[in-house]
Amino acid sequence: MVLAISFLEAPLKFRAPGVTTTIGLGIGRLVFRALNVCELVFAVVIAAALFATSHGFGIDVAFTVAIAALFFQTVVVRPLLARRTAEVLAGDEGTRSRAHFAYVALEVVKVIALIVGGIALLSA
């Protein structure tokens, strides 16, 4: 889900014919809100599974990193992006937000952590 939405859908939607910045930002708000809700549900399930079972330290670390990245995105970065989106929708084009770079960096961290955790689970 993270790969498909963050690294495919998000940049491609602005290249579609007739999609303005306003429409793209509106779509992005809805899509990323839905993605984060799904991710938070999965994070709760993963956290419960980590506490309920015994497994290797590497698995704990990998999934804890993924959950921490999601938490930081949700609590710190998304509010900054929401504020900037509101400004752009109000007509203030201004400079591009650096929060996007933080969000993308955290997406990369999540993907790597999930891959490492998945491999560790398969190897256990």
UniProtKB/TrEMBL annotation:
Protein name: Uncharacterized protein
Species whose genome carries this gene: Mycolicibacterium arenosum
Sequence intervals crossing the membrane: 30-51, 57-81, 101-122
Key words of the record: Membrane, Transmembrane, Transmembrane helix
